[in-house]
Structures are given as C-alpha cells and as structure tokens.
Amino acid sequence: MYSIDKIIENHLDYFSDGWYSIGYYRTLQGHLIIDLNKVKKGNCNYLIYFDSDDPDEHMVLQMNVEQWLEKFIKSNGASFWE
C-alpha cells in the first residue's frame, strides 16, 4: 500500500480519469486502484485490479478497501479474485 505522496507520484496517464493506484502487486505486476468517481457517487464497490502487462485489461473487484484487506489477510496475500 502506498503513502499519499506515492499515490500522487504513481498516477499514470493511461489510467482512466479518477483512478488512483493505492498499491502494486509485484508478483502479479498489477495495480490496486481506487475509482474516485465511484467513491464520490457513494458506491462502496470502488476497487479495481489493473494489469500492468495489459493496460486494456482491468477487473472491478466489487469491494472496498476494508473488504479487500480482510480477504487479502485471509488468503495470505494470494490473488483471491482470480
């Protein structure tokens, strides 16, 4: 998980508007993204997994950070969404 400064630093031009990477999976080479557009609308399913190897591919995780963290811990850091 990134600090606020790192989140701003790691914002990539090819991310959709309002997408910010909050962390990076080195083993999967992908970003964990918060979609601020969904957050602003009150949608609590705002997390996205973004594959760095294929910028056209992403997966809406249908969860928030709290839910993701709980599942991440229970899965011992595995990619539980695949």
Describe this structure in words.
With 82 residues, the chain is of the alpha+beta class. It has one domain (4-74). It has helices at 4-9, 36-40, 65-74, and strands at 19-25, 30-35, 47-51, 58-60. It has a four-stranded antiparallel β-sheet. The longest helix is centred in the last third of the chain and has 10 residues, at 65-74. The radius of gyration is 12 Å and the shape is globular. The chain starts with a helix and ends in an 8-residue tail after the last helix.
Helix-strand blueprint:
Blueprint: H1 4-9, E1 19-25, E2 30-35, H2 36-40, E3 47-51, E4 58-60, H3 65-74
Antiparallel strand pairs: 1-2, 2-3, 3-4
Throw out a few tags for this protein.
alpha+beta, 4 strands, single chain, 4-stranded antiparallel beta sheet, 82 residues, globular
